[in-house]
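[job 4417] fold queue: 2 targets
>>> target A
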Amino acid sequence: MKWIENFNPDKNESELGFNYYGFSIIEKKGAMKFLKLMEAWYLMFSEAPEEIILTGLYTWNDEDDDPKLIGDYEKLSIRRKEVLDTLSKLIEFATRVESEDYKIIYSGI
């Protein structure tokens, strides 16, 4: 998402990508690209199986207090319907920003 233009109110300037810990505001210009991306993701995930397995962060298994810790990537399971419902809402929001006087406010993690 580093190529989506938004406004960073903390710096009082436009930038590309979202503010990781603070606010980012998507206005009309950034909404056009955001909308295209969300529509593309919607089409892609609509072809996924009912249960989508995504690769998460690398984690360490320390259950046995073994000095040779074994790590692995966590597996994230999410239902396709949940992903598509969320993407539909984001598409609706982006469409309203693009056609009306609205903004999307992202509040970071």
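>>> target B
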Amino acid sequence: MIVITAPTGNTGSHLLPLLLASAPAHEELRVVVRDPARLPDAVRDRVEVVTGSHGDAEVVDRAFEGADAVFWLVPPDASLTPEEAYRGFTGPAAKALVAHGVGHVVGVSALGRGTPVAHRAGLVSASLAMDDLIAGTGVAYRALACPSFFENLLEDADTIRETGVFTDAIDAGLKAPRAAVADIAAVAADLLLNRAWSGNDSVPVLGPQDLSPDDLARIMTEELGRPVRYEQQPLDALYGDLLGYRLDEAFARGVVDMKRAKNEGLDAGVARTPATGTPTTFRQWCARTLRPAVSEGARRAR
């Protein structure tokens, strides 16, 4: 029995079809979802559904009963502090893992462990503390150490279409790993289906190459057929914007501290190897995902 949390999110929506396609006939799948209606009918008919939040003790107690493996992903709640959003949310699950003797957990986490800035990296520091909590339960644990996702750029699809600009707080020339969510899901699926591993470790998911924001702008310009440029947002301006969106002050500070740490080398602590690289290039992702998103927005605007 494999339990999948957040099955309708960015990563889970890629992971679940992979498991359905590749899991052996004897491997049951169970999902934890707030709204089962968000699952496609074809999926809902093939999995066991536990309705509710996987941050709720009663829900994870039901979900983890009889489970051999769990895919764990925390949906960050910007109304909480980073500590509450990660370790606090995971606390009930950690107890349920022990109570039900779950053997293996694969979690979505972040790069940065072992770097000089890891202890002051905001949301990433909170994510690494979550990893420690899960590992401390005694389960075999693999933390997917992820960089920034290509999919983060979908938040800028409208401004890319309307003004040709995307923004972030990362230094324009800083090259860093970036990865596609589909590739992260593929790594998770392999670990969940092939559980001949033990102990606790991180699994870096680095994408095929390091790219700077200026590199992203150049590739988007070529792939979208329109000029795209990058504008770096000062950290204090980012903090002000986040507060304007009514984020918890500590959570907003956690985002800013994460961005600052990335500029100071947070994501540079792991070398890319055939084992840590993943296949989808940014150019491929632009063609498959960003270009349709920008075009769809243009059609809606007409």
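[job 4417] complete. Note on B: The domain at 2-148+178-204 is CATH 3.40.50.720 (Rossmann fold).
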